[in-house]
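Side project, low priority. Logging it here so it doesn't get lost.
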Amino acid sequence: MQTINANEVIDHAKLKAIHWRVILLSALIIIFDGYDLVIYGVALPKLMAEWKIDSITAGFLGSVALFGMMFGAILFGSLSDKLERYGFSRKKIIILCICLFSGFTLLCGYASDPQNFGIFRFLAGLGLGGVMPNIIALMTEYAPKKLRSTLVSLMFSGYAVGGMCSALLGMWLVPQFGWKIMFILGGIPLLLIPIIWLLLPESIDYLVRRNKTEKAADILKQINSNINYTAQTKICLDQNNQSSSQSPIKDLFADNRAMITLLFWLSVFMALVLVYA
């Protein structure tokens, strides 16, 4: 029986159309993620004037999305592998997070008071935080080994692009249409969900673990056209990908990784303090 190691095929692949599809769609999602997070600062002066809120309340409303991002990253990031047994693949979780951050950002444009606005921003934050670890994981999974860091960095640069688009659009749209137009535009990803669902490939690890061999083989053929798949072909994963730890957080501190983990957490924390303080 012929055996194909899916991870080896991806690691040694050359860039093909499927790779660019994953890169562009992932970057597009991250662009809207960055846009949705930054628009509050763009809309803030008009919003404060219309609702007559003070700076403390405005600061709180700006922070609720960050709290939502924290809980969203923890919830959707850590549960993605566990939800797999119930049929929730990484792709489905990405779509769910898009619905959350885009749908509730759209509702922010129709909020009638600060209380409803704050609730919508928190719920949007769940999607904003949840989509990032999953889209990065999917991009990492499909990137050839020698280009992995480059492609993930290229994709994640969409976050800054989204923020810049928000600022530039705000300079043009807010004076003419008011602050709500910025949040209404945040609903555009909802219209793109059918395209993302159709073109974004499923997690190859998910397909192999769920014994969806034919779908996995179809994707691998797009990555390497020389693959010869038959009914007797078995597709497997690297040993490290075949089992998940019962305590992944504990593993971050095992094998002398405690100091590295703590320093990494500290660097990310301080970066966010500098950006959002």
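Brief comment: The chain is about 75% helix and 0% strand.
Revisit when time allows.
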